[in-house]
Amino acid sequence: MQNPLTKRLERYVALGKFDRRMLDDIVAESREVAAGEHVVGDGDDPQGVRLIIDGFACRYKTLPDGKRQIVAYMIPGDFCDLYAFVLGKRNRNIAAISTCRVVDISPERIATLMSRPSLGRALWRTSLVDESILSEWIVNIGARAAEARIAHFICEMILRLQIVGLADLTGGYLPITQSDLADTLGLSLVHTNRSLQHLRARGLFTLNRSRLDIPDFDRLAEISFFDRAYLHLDMATDDTQQAYLSNDVPGEIMSSPKPPV
Amino acid sequence: MQNPLTKRLERYVALGKFDRRMLDDIVAESREVAAGEHVVGDGDDPQGVRLIIDGFACRYKTLPDGKRQIVAYMIPGDFCDLYAFVLGKRNRNIAAISTCRVVDISPERIATLMSRPSLGRALWRTSLVDESILSEWIVNIGARAAEARIAHFICEMILRLQIVGLADLTGGYLPITQSDLADTLGLSLVHTNRSLQHLRARGLFTLNRSRLDIPDFDRLAEISFFDRAYLHLDMATDDTQQAYLSNDVPGEIMSSPKPPV
DNA sequence: CGCAGCTTTGACGCAGATCAATTCAAGTGG
DNA sequence: CCACTTGAATTGATCTGCGTCAAAGCTGCG
After folding, report:
1. What is the pLDDT of residues A92-130, one digit of tens each?
2. Helix ranges, B144-212 (H)
3. If DSSP codes are grouped into helix, strand and coil, which group holds residue B138?
4. Chain B contact for A11, CB < 8 A?
5. DSSP 8-state assignment for residue A106
6. How do beta strands A68-74 and B57-62 pair?
7. Which 3-state string (H, E, C) describes B167-185?
8. Terminal CA-to-CA distance of chain B, rounded, Å?
9. Do A128 and B86 touch (CB under 8 A)?
10. Of B65, B239, B254, the CB nearest to A253
């Protein structure tokens, strides 16, 4: 049985035996975070990067007026704050949505990963796919009406879950509350509820106590103008730029582990 | 006089003389794209990466129902499609908003840039800052009311323009149409117009024929809950992770120039 | 002078917000 | 096994920010 990190990264790059072993090592040691808790502890000064290997987490921002906007969901196989690591900042606004298993990856270890050509490329790509998802969310929130907006989000999640074996096109595990959904899509809770009811009545999907069921995925995709391209799910194969992004280069971007200060 | 690319990258990393010369070389040859035209030509199969050195461009998506959503603005010093390059995809949905000067950077050249430790890091960071901006846009569109939403966007643009010397906190050059604004912020054109009028009446800013004037930046920032942190403007200095992201590593991510196929 | 693109106005309607309960599901402790 | 609590889903009523439609000014330009 493969670990979710391997499953995920395999989407972006072909992995060797050594790479896989490395990833298995990474995933070996994890801690549990209860639903509702912060993934990045409030007290300590967190180093390195956090990785979700079980459960759901989200990144969010709360405005001074109290409104919360969820900006991303992290599911098994997703890094929480790789971008923050590279930028040299910290982001503590990451909360477990369900009970999570998270791995703390030390800066040294991340550096080691990044120094492997294939893994380094996979990480970079992971982060760019995240970026692509953010773009699509902007389109979703900015340009779609409530029902299509929800439908689109559901389509995205089901495909992402599928990669790591947590769902297929008929449904899966989605521990997201209506209130979370509202804060994700820029809708009010009440309106989210009514839209969900209507989508349900239309026979498009049901979301009940963490269980997502999709009678007809194609129709769901259709009404939301869902185009999976932005998820870049089939990259390891159609890698046209491969030639430019592979081995034997004189310089490099990442570097050997050196403790800070 | 520094070129905008250098100005931009200097924000993220300290540059050596050799790096600067390299960047000057890159910027030496450019072509003009008329307002309204696509930056990535429709006919050819574009390779490499495009860089804006003068004028404004935007990335957008048009839904089947005709709605257009602008997802990002590219101003002098910004790469248009670095992410697409790394992902091995193409994005043609990039349009010049005003007349632009754009540089076509060949794949080989990009690879060379990326192979320099400092520049490679700067590029990665550029892309992560873009990601950070996308997150903030989600918050903006999802959680702020029309006027604050517009105000926040203005704050962001003025700071970005400031970096490359196209504005200061009292105003600058912003060739964006009300219709563009509407498609950027998920508002209707009419409502955008009325909100702009009200913001003007409140003495917050005026936007007239590409000229942006801001009598009181602080108040503008205040009403939109603007927090510049997400732009990561002062990174070259407070670089805590520097140690992990510098030189002399055995492996690498990017690679020597090798023509495709 | 007369398009053509942008801004502005007016009138009207609705999607979605807000407020305020109520119901339901699933623990939890006695 | 049942009161009691708590968080989530649901419902009803009301209101409004923002969208839509349609037309009229502006302004720069060929």
Report:
1. 999 999 999 999 999 999 999 999 989 999 999 999 999
2. 146-163, 178-185, 189-201
3. helix
4. no
5. P
6. unpaired
7. EECCEEECCCCHHHHHHHH
8. 40
9. yes
10. B254
